[in-house]
User: Which sequence fits this backbone?
C-alpha cells in the first residue's frame, strides 16, 4: 500500500534528533504498550508479525507521524483487538473516558467492518521455509516490480521499477504480502539486491549504494540495456532548474 | 538520565490513557498477565541491550577466527552468547573498513536486531532518519557527526525482510594496536550502539 509508513526517500523531515542517555522506555505507558503487544498476539489479535506490521501501517496517517513508535503500536493493537472481536471500540472509548481521557483526541486505530480472515498461527518456528531452487543467482541484474497493491508489501515505493544486482540469495522465507492477509505463508526465495544511488535517485545522487531484501515475485530479469541510458537516445528536452 | 521529568505533572498523553484503558480491559478478561509489564521492563532494561552487541564486537576485534565466523554466518556465530530478546532469526554482520562504510535502517517500519542491540532508540524509528538515510546517507551521516571522505564507499542496508543487520565498527584509531591485549570490559566501554547501527565512528 502507498501508506505514510513507507518513508524512504521522502523529503522534508529535517534533522535527526538524538537523545543523550535515552531511556529504554520514555514513560510507563510505553512499557505497558510493549507488554500489551506481546500479549495481544497470543490473545488472537494477530497471528504473525506480517499481520501486526500491516495493522500498524493501516492506522490513521496523522497519528502515524505524530504519536511516536509506541503510539503507532497502540493504533495497530487496538485495530487488531477490535477486528478480531476481542474488544469493542465503544468499551475501549468508554474506559478511556472513565480514566479522564480527552473525548475528542485523535484515535489512531482504524478498524474495518469486514477485516481480512485470520491466518493460522505458524506450525513451524521462525520465517524460513523450504522452497524451490532460486530463479536468480549472485550478480544477476534484476528489475523490481512497478505494481502498487493496496495491501501489505515489503517492496518500498522508492525501489519500485528499479534495476539492481543480486548480492546473495537467502533461500525460502514466508511471503509477507500474502501472510499478512490470511492468505497463507506462500514462501519464496529472498534476495539481497544492491542498487546504485543513481539507479534509485537519478544522476545527481550522492555516491552510495543501497541493499534491500526482496522477495522473488518482486523481481524480474533486467536486461543490461536497462542499466545504462542509451547514449544516442538521451532525453531530447533538458533544462537547468 | 537527562530525561525531563517536569511533564509528569502535566495531564497524561491520550496514548497513555488509551493504553491504560486497553490494559485494564485485557486484565479483566485474563488476556494479559498482571506481571507482563514488569517482565518486559526487566528483560529490555536489564538483560537485552547494546551491551550484548558490544561483547560480540569486542570478541571479533580480539579473535580473528571468531571474526571470520561472525562475518560468514552471524546467526551461527552468536549462538555461543545465548542471547534473549528476539529479532535475530538471521543476523548479518557488516564490517566497516577504511574503504567501506555500512549503515542500517528500516524505512517501512523499525526492524532492528533486538537480541544484540536492544530496543531501537527513538531517532531510529522517527521519520527523519528513515526518510533521509536511504536518499542522502553521506549528508545525513555528516550532520550526525560522521563526516566520511568521498574515498569511503557508503552502503545503506534497508531491512525490508526478516534479515537483521549489525555493523562491526572499526576500533578507535588510538587503540587499534592495543585491542588484542585489552580487557573485555575496557573494550566494550569503547563501543557505542550508534557505531553498531553505522551512524558513528569510534
Assistant:
Amino acid at each position: 500500500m502507498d501508506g505514510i509508513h513507507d518513508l524512504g526517500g521522502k523529503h522534508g523531515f529535517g534533522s535527526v534528533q538524538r537523545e543523550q542517555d535515552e531511556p529504554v522506555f520514555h514513560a510507563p505507558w510505553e512499557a505497558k504498550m510493549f507488554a500489551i503487544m506481546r500479549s495481544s498476539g497470543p490473545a488472537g489479535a494477530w497471528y504473525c508479525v506480517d499481520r501486526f506490521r500491516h495493522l500498524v501501517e493501516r492506522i490513521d496517517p496523522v497519528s502515524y507521524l505524530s504519536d511516536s513508535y509506541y503510539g503507532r503500536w497502540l493504533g495497530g493493537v487496538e485495530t487488531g483487538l477490535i477486528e478480531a472481536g476481542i474488544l469493542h471500540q465503544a468499551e475501549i472509548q468508554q474506559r478511556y473516558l472513565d480514566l479522564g481521557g480527552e473525548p475528542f483526541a485523535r484515535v489512531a486505530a482504524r478498524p474495518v467492518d469486514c477485516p481480512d480472515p485470520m491466518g493460522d498461527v505458524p506450525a513451524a518456528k521462525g520465517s524460513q521455509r523450504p522452497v524451490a531452487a532460486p530463479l536468480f543467482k549472485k550478480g544477476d541484474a534484476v528489475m523490481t516490480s512497478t505494481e502498487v497493491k493496496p495491501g501489505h508489501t515489503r517492496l518500498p515505493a522508492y525501489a519500485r521499477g528499479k534495476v539492481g544486482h543480486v548480492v546473495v540469495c537467502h533461500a525460502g522465507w514466508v511471503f509477507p504480502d500474502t501472510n499478512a492477509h490470511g492468505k497463507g505463508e506462500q514462501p519464496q526465495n529472498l534476495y539481497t539486491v544492491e542498487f546504485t544511488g543513481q539507479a534509485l535517485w537519478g544522476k545527481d545522487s550522492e555516491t552510495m549504494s543501497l541493499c534491500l531484501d526482496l522477495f522473488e515475485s518482486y523481481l524480474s530479469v533486467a536486461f543490461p540495456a536497462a542499466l545504462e541510458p542509451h547514449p544516442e537516445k538521451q532525453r531530447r528536452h533538458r533544462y537547468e532548474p | 538520565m537527562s530525561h525531563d521529568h517536569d511533564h509528569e505533572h502535566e495531564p497524561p498523553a491520550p496514548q497513555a490513557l488509551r493504553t491504560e484503558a486497553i490494559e485494564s480491559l485485557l486484565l479483566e478478561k485474563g488476556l494479559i498477565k498482571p506481571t507482563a509489564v514488569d517482565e518486559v521492563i526487566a528483560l529490555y532494561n536489564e538483560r537485552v541491550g547494546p551491551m550484548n552487541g558490544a561483547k560480540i564486537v569486542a570478541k571479533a576485534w580480539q579473535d580473528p577466527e571468531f571474526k571470520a565466523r561472525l562475518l560468514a554466518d552471524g546467526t551461527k556465530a552468536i549462538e555461543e552468547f545465548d542471547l534473549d530478546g528476539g529479532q535475530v532469526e538471521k543476523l548479518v554482520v557488516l564490517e566497516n573498513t577504511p574503504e567501506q562504510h555500512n549503515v542500517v535502517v528500516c524505512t517501512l517500519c523499525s526492524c532492528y536486531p533486538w537480541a544484540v542491540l536492544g530496543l531501537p532508540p527513538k531517532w531510529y524509528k522517527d521519520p527523519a532518519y528513515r526518510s533521509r538515510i536511504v536518499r542522502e546517507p553521506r549528508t545525513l551521516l555528516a550532520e550526525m557527526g560522521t563526516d566520511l571522505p568521498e574515498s569511503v564507499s557508503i552502503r545503506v542496508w534497508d531491512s525490508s525482510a526478516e534479515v537483521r543487520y549489525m555493523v562491526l565498527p572499526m576500533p578507535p584509531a588510538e587503540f587499534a594496536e592495543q585491542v588484542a591485549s585489552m580487557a573485555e570490559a575496557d573494550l566494550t566501554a569503547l563501543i557505542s550502539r550508534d557505531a553498531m547501527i553505522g551512524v558513528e565512528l569510534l
User: Anything to note?
Assistant: Chain B touches chain A through 73 residues (CB under 8 Å).
